[in-house]
Amino acid sequence: MSEYVLEVDGLQKAFRVGAGEVVACNNVSFTIPPGGSMGLVGESGSGKSTIARMLVGLETPDAGTIHVRGRQLGLQERGRAARLRRAKEIQMVFQDPYGSLDRRLTVAQCLDQAMRLHGVSGSARVAALLDQVGLLAKHGDSKPHQLSGGQRQRVAIARCLAIEPSVMVLDEAVSALDVSVQAQILALLNEIRASSGIALLFVSHDLAVVSEVTDDVLVMYRGSILEQGPTGRVLNAPESSYTKLLISSMPGPGWDPADVLERRAAFEAKVGV
Amino acid sequence: MLLDIDNLSLTITANGLVNPILDTVSLSVDAGEVVGLVGESGSGKSTTARAVLRLYPHTAAVEGSITVGGTEVLSASRDELHRVRSSEAAMIHQDPRAALNPVRRIGDSLTERLVHVLGVSRSDAAAAGLELLAAVGIRQPEERMRQYPHELSGGMLQRVVIAAALTGQPKLLLADEATSALDVTTQAEVLAILRDLQVQRGLGVLLITHDLHLAAAYCDRVYVMYRGRIVEELRGNDLFHGAQHEYTRRLLSAVPAIGHLPNSESRAS
């Protein structure tokens, strides 16, 4: 038994674009302990979503290995049983819960279906799941369009928890929510990992959000990890000039978009893009 | 005053239930001014912006007045309303992919307003389109005009949408979460361009956002909305430290922050 819930080693992925190639993920390795939470930050196109998608099997890596609780996952799952096994290990929550929930199913049906699919018995657990994510029993009878964005995201999280995965991947899962709702969901995530030991991979371009919910963080730029370490250290005393650029790009008092562009141009000139 | 909303109330009655959406909202935007409108979803920010173009359900009961460049929108005739929508005010939405027709070329979407609404010839419209794409910082505009939305990045598409909004030479821009879907550096890029255009053309901008840090840093004045009411009006610089209203303070306290950043502390002072 490995001491890590998730071990990613030497992950590699390139996409062909026209005649050339874009390396979306270049030799990426990291580990997450039980109950741990890893942030994955970077701008759009940095490769963070590609990593998330490779973990859940939506993209096939060119090279590298993924271990969950010491067991190696196939690079490409073939057949229903293998895909279900994969889904049982790693679940994903997307940015837009409206797009990921079936609008014809009630919340209870949605949770029940997920459990049945994975052979986890128990419509009795539906109530407990709703309670765990801070929803009321009556929400079980609601359909997605009757719920607010924050409630829908809670349902998506409950559906993940329903099948008791080892790893939960959240891809910009709170980006579309208001700050106050966002704060509630972040608190919920912290509660879940403390109580269940599920490892979280939290993908976001919002550094402030990442700082609230992760222990460690990976900073990606054009497919490569430029900096990694404890979240507090990386965000308070960044070493990479790219991390510094990201932090200073966040709107705040005295922020001027024109300065951000200058700093960005200087960074790109330095790395020779 | 470029935009003047005075005591605007909007009520929707559905299934016998009276639903007050906006309650005596008053706000103003002057030429050359960037004004923020912040609040949670459902607080009425977007409804307010849409009402400026008289876009609300037929079932809505509306009171109060909205004046855009001297025209009273709520009581405007068909022709007056047409003029406000085509050449006084323009709206930019959050998702540029939803705003552009995926099966039409960028150039067609960009010049649509000029050709079909304002009756400009196709060749003149194309020339104007190229000029606007250059103005929003898009390189190789000729090539972009021939491309389709899926071939461009989100940041570039949002710049196309801004260019398209400017084709009618509006004086007022209503930006509804226009940069919320972009990452921080792309957001800065789009906002820097917007600020340049705004200064050059003396545009008034109503910027709707849920990003309070952005509102504080980018806007001259900020209105805070809660449950259909404006609860507070502040100078952008004062948003984080001068808020008086309980709701504004609660909203500010929910904003995630990188804890004890030496950088953010120095910026906050």
Automatic annotation (TrEMBL), chain A:
One family name in Pfam for this protein: ABC_tran
SUPFAM superfamilies xref list: P-loop containing nucleoside triphosphate hydrolases
UniProt keyword terms in alphabetical order: ATP-binding, Nucleotide-binding, Transport
Any one GO MF annotation of this record: ATP hydrolysis activity
Domain ABC transporter: start-end pairs: 6-247
SMART domains registered for this protein in UniProt: AAA (SM00382)
Gene Ontology biological-process annotations: transmembrane transport
The UniProt record lists the keyword Nucleotide-binding: yes
Keyword Transport included in the entry's annotation: yes
Family: Belongs to the ABC transporter superfamily.
UniProt cross-references to PANTHER family, sorted A to Z: D,D-DIPEPTIDE TRANSPORT ATP-BINDING PROTEIN DDPF-RELATED, TRANSPORT ATP-BINDING PROTEIN
Protein name: ABC transporter ATP-binding protein
Organism this protein belongs to: Paenarthrobacter nitroguajacolicus
Lineage, highest ranks first: Bacteria, Bacillati, Actinomycetota, Actinomycetes, Micrococcales
Automatic annotation (TrEMBL), chain B:
Occurrences of domain ABC transporter (ranges): 3-252
UniProt membrane topology term: Peripheral membrane protein
SMART domains on file: AAA
UniProt record similarity statement: Belongs to the ABC transporter superfamily.
Protein name, entry field: ABC transporter ATP-binding protein
UniProt keyword list: ATP-binding, Cell membrane, Membrane, Nucleotide-binding, Transport
Highest taxon above the source species: Bacteria
CDD domains named among the record's database cross-references: ABC_NikE_OppD_transporters
Location in the cell: Cell membrane
GO cellular component, one term: plasma membrane
Pfam family for this entry, one: ABC_tran
PROSITE patterns the record matches: ABC_TRANSPORTER_1, ABC_TRANSPORTER_2
Listed GO MF terms: ATP binding; ATP hydrolysis activity
Main subcellular location of this protein, as a coarse class: membrane
